[in-house]
Amino acid sequence: MFELHHLSAQEQWDWLRRGEVTPRELTDHYLARIDRHDPGDDGVGAFVAVGADAARDRADELGRAGRSTAPLWGLPLADKDLTDRAGLPTGLGSRLSRGRVAEQDSEISAVLGEAGAVSLGKTATPEFGLTGYTEPVVGPVTRNPWRRDLGAGGSSGGAAAAVAAGLLPFAPGSDGGGSIRIPAAMTGLVGLKPSRGRVPAQSGITSLGGLAVGGPIARTVADAAMLLDAMVSPDGRAPRDHFALRAPGSPDGAWLGTAVRGEGRFQLGVLTASPWDDAYDVRVDPRLLGVLYDTADQLDALGHGVDDASLPGSEYPTLFRTIWQAGAAGIPAETDDDFALLEPMTAWLVRRGRELGARELGAALAGLSAFEQSVIAAFHRFDAVLTPSLALLPPALGWHDADDPERAFEQQCLVSPFTSFVNVAGLPAITLPVAEVDGLPAGVQLIGRPGREDVLLAIGAQLERRLRWQRRHPDCW
C-alpha cells in the first residue's frame, strides 16, 4: 500500500508545491510513524525529543502563508541533539546536560527554518557526539532499522536511523570523524560530508583542527544534494555567507542539478589501506572488500578510469588521538560530581585533553596540517578515491567496551578506519549504499578533491541509476 514516506524528498516537495498534500498532512504522517515505530524497548530510538505541537503549528503557519519556492518548503526533518532548537531540550547525549531547554535556535537550525523546513524534534547522538555508535547511558539506545539488535552507528545515529526507518524524508547531520558517513553506511543511506568551509553554519573552520562539518543524510543522491543546497543557501539563490565555498561552474551554488544529471567520466583511485593500519589490527571484512571491487568494476563499465591509490606514511594515529582528546577538553565538567555523570569514554578524553601542553597540541596541529597536504598530493592523479565505507558490518548493540575507553576507541577505528582522515584533510566524501551483505547494508565511500562535491554527486547518481538502492528498505518501511 502506498504511503507518503514512500516518495523521495524531491517528490514530496513537488507534491507540496502542486497542492496534492499540505505541510500539515505531511507533518502528521511522519509524526504518526514516529509514534508507531520509534518509542519502546524494541523501537528504533531515533528521537530524544519530539516537538509535535510546535511542528504542527509550524506546518499550519506555512500552509496559511501559501506555497513557496523555498528549497525545503513544508518538508519535515529533525535536528541532531548537538544543536539547539528553541523550546526543545538540548541534551547532547549526556546526563551532564540533561534538563537544558534551548531559548533560541542554533545557526544551522535557523538556516533550515529559513529554507522552509518543519522540525519534528531532536535526533539521538552519543555523549557530546564523541563516538561512532549511538548508545548513550542517558538513552535512548538507537537501533538499526535493518536489525534491531545491531547498532546504527554515530554520531548522527538517530538521524540516520530515522531516515532509514521512514520517520523522516532526510536529515541534517554533522561529521567530525565520520559521524555522517558511519551511520549512513550502517543503515543503507547516502551520507555526504562536505568540504571544510562548504556549509557556512557548520563550516568546520571554527572547530579545533577544522574537523566537524554539517551535511545531509538521505535515501538518494539527489535528496542529499537538495538538502545540501538548502544548508548552504536557504533562500535558494546564493550562499548565506559570502566567504563560503561555491560550487564549481555554478554561481548560485546549486548541487541538485548535478545530482539529477549524473554526467561525466572521471579518473578514480581504489584504496584498501587506512592510516590506522600500523596502530591497530585493522582487517576489512572480505565481503566488504568484495563489494568494493564489484563497485570498481561497475565504475569501469560506466567508462571511468580505475587505478590503485595509496596513502603516504605518517604518525596519523597519534596525531588524531591528540586532537580528539584536545577537542574534548572544553566539555564543561569541573567537579567530581560532573565527572561522575560522564561516560567512561568521555571522561577519559576530557582528562587526557586537559593533560596536554601547548607544545604538544601545537605539534599535533602542525603534523595534521602536513598530513592534509600529503593526502591531497597523494590523491592528485584522481578525481575521486574509492574506499570501503566501513571495515566491518554493523556491530551488535553493546559490542563496544563501555568500561574500557582505550579499547572502545580502538574498536571504533577497527569499524571505521577510512573516515576520520578525510575530516583532517578537509575533503568532501560520500558514502553510497551499493549492496547488501547477509541482509545488511554495505557501502563504499568516494573521497573528492577539495571543493568538488559535484564530482561525488555525479558518480553517485550514475551508480544509483545502475544499482537502484533506493528500492531497498528495512521491514518497518
Task: Kindly name the structural category.
Answer: alpha+beta
Q: In CATH terms, what is the architecture?
A: Alpha-Beta Complex
Strand content: 5-15%
- Structural Rg: 21 Å
Within CATH, the superfamily carries the name: Amidase signature (AS) domain
CATH class (first level) name = Alpha Beta
Q: Helix count?
A: 16
Examine the coordinates and then state which fold CATH places here, giving the name of the CATH topology: Amidase signature (AS) enzymes
The whole-number mean of residue pLDDT values reads 96
- The poorly predicted ranges are none
Secondary-structure element order, as H and E? Answer: HHEHEHEEEHEHEEHHEHEHHHHEHHEEH
Report how far the terminal alpha carbons are from each other: 11 Å
Strand order of the largest sheet: 6-8-7-12-13-11-9-10
The percentage helix is 25-40%
Number of domains: 1
Can you count the beta strands? 13
The major β-sheet equals:
8 strands, mixed
**Outline:** globular
Task: Describe what this molecule looks like in 3D.
The longest helix is centred in the C-terminal third of the chain and has 21 residues, at 358-378. Helix content is 38%, strand content 14%. The protein has one domain: Amidase signature (AS) enzymes. It has helices at 9-18, 23-37, 52-65, 107-114, 157-164, 181-186, 221-232, 256-261, 286-301, 316-328, 336-341, 344-355, 358-378, 405-415, 420-425, 453-467, and strands at residues 47-50, 76-80, 118-123, 143-144, 147-151, 170-175, 190-193, 213-218, 267-270, 305-308, 384-388, 429-437, 440-448. The protein has an eight-stranded mixed beta sheet with strand order 6-8-7-12-13-11-9-10, with helices on both faces. Strands 1-3-2 form a three-stranded mixed beta sheet. The model has no long low-confidence stretch (mean pLDDT 96). It contains 16 helices and 13 strands. It has 477 residues and is α+β, with helices and mostly antiparallel strands.
